[in-house]
Every structure is written in structure tokens, then in C-alpha cells.
């Protein structure tokens, strides 16, 4: 288990809703435009969204291998964070679909001559970003409260126990069951 600065992680979690809001505003601006040059207009926000998803995934990885995983509600919070990362990733993919929806009109006679298909994808992307921002806002508030409260001593005890525990060999490997796909759509913070 890595020991990381949870105060810094709280700060980073707290910055994400603002970054997601800025990205949302940018996507809304593109959606409101003509989307005459889909690659040039949509690709920059798609790339920024993908980069943000990767950064959030790296933070999830860092937190999951740190003392954060053993503090009270750590695993549950990591699950919520995983869902938020998924939502950001889906938003990035929806932006890419927005490019495709608009370029189809340029390639095929029966393609959508308006930008409605692209606008629809971009609208869905902003909804995903809004949900992710809400999750990150809640996670940052929860961690901030834990770090500032008497619960910090309880967390330190859990961390100390996890640090001193020696791994025991497993007697048998339990089969892994995949998570249900619809579980992501029903959970929200």
C-alpha cells in the first residue's frame, strides 16, 4: 500500500467539477454552432475529454493502491469514482460520435444534412459530464470532511491495521463475476 497525500488528492478531486464544467461549456458552444467543420470543431473537445478521462483514471489507480482504499467507505468511494471515470470516457466517445454523425452527411447522400445527430451526441456528452461532476463534488466533500474530523483517527487505525497485516496465501481462487452493465446507469451521487 502506497501512502499518498490525501489532502492533495482532496484538492484534485475538488478541482474536477470545475474542469468538467468548463469542458461542458465548451461542448455547449460547439453544439450551438453550425458544426460545418466537424473534425476541426468537435475534435479539440473530444481530445480534451479523453485526456481528462485518462488523468482521472490515473488518479483512481493511485487512490486504489493507497491508504484511501482502506479508510472508512474507501472502497465504496472508489466504486463511485470508477463510475465517474466511465462517464467522462463515455462523454469523450460521444464527442467522437458527434464528429462521425456530421461527417456522414458529407460522405453519404442519405446522411443527416443538419447537425442534429451531432448535437444529440454532444448533448448526451454534457449530461455524462454533469453526472461525473456531481460524483466528484460529493467525493471531494466526503474526503474533506473525513480529513477535518475526528474520523481521521479512525481512518489512521484502519490504515495502520492494513499496513501491518501480512498477506496470507489464498486457499482457492473464487471465480470472478463481471459487474452488471446496468449497475452503472442506476448509481448516482
Secondary-structure map:
Layout: H1 6-32, H2 38-64, H3 74-107, H4 116-148, H5 151-164, H6 183-186
Helix pairs in contact: 1-2, 1-4, 2-3, 3-4
Question: What does the model show?
Answer:
By secondary structure, this protein is an all-alpha fold. It is built from six helices and no strands. The chain is elongated, with a radius of gyration of 20 Å.
Short recap of the structure:
The chain is mainly α and 189 residues long. It contains six helices and no strands. It has helices at 6-32, 38-64, 74-107, 116-148, 151-164, 183-186.
Into which percent range does the helicity of residues fall?
over 70%
Mean pLDDT: 82
The computed structural class is: mainly alpha
Number of strands: 0
* Shape by Cα distribution: elongated
For the termini, the CA-CA separation is 27 Å
Element string (H = helix, E = strand): HHHHHH
What proportion of the residues form beta strands (DSSP E)? under 5%
Low-confidence stretches: 168-189
What's the helix count? Answer: 6
* Major β-sheet annotation: none
Question: Mind telling me the C-alpha Rg?
Answer: 20 Å
Amino acid at each position: 500500500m502506497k501512502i499518498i497525500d490525501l489532502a492533495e488528492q482532496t484538492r484534485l478531486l475538488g478541482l474536477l467539477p470545475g474542469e468538467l464544467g468548463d469542458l461542458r461549456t465548451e461542448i455547449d458552444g460547439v453544439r450551438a454552432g453550425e458544426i460545418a467543420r466537424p473534425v476541426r470543431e468537435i475534435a479539440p473537445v473530444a481530445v480534451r475529454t479523453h485526456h481528462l478521462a485518462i488523468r482521472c483514471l490515473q488518479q483512481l489507480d493511485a487512490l486504489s493502491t493507497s491508504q484511501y482504499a482502506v479508510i472508512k467507505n474507501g472502497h465504496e468511494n472508489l466504486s463511485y469514482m470508477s463510475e465517474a471515470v466511465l462517464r467522462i470516457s463515455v462523454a469523450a466517445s460521444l464527442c467522437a460520435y458527434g464528429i462521425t454523425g456530421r461527417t456522414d452527411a458529407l460522405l453519404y447522400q442519405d446522411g443527416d444534412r443538419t447537425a442534429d445527430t451531432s448535437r444529440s451526441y454532444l448533448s448526451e456528452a454534457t449530461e455524462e459530464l454533469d453526472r461525473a461532476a456531481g460524483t466528484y463534488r460529493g467525493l471531494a466533500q466526503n474526503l474533506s470532511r473525513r480529513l477535518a474530523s475526528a474520523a481521521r483517527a479512525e481512518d489512521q487505525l484502519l490504515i495502520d491495521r492494513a499496513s501491518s497485516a501480512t498477506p496470507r496465501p489464498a486457499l482457492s481462487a473464487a471465480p470472478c463475476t463481471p459487474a452488471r452493465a446496468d449497475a452503472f446507469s442506476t448509481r448516482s451521487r
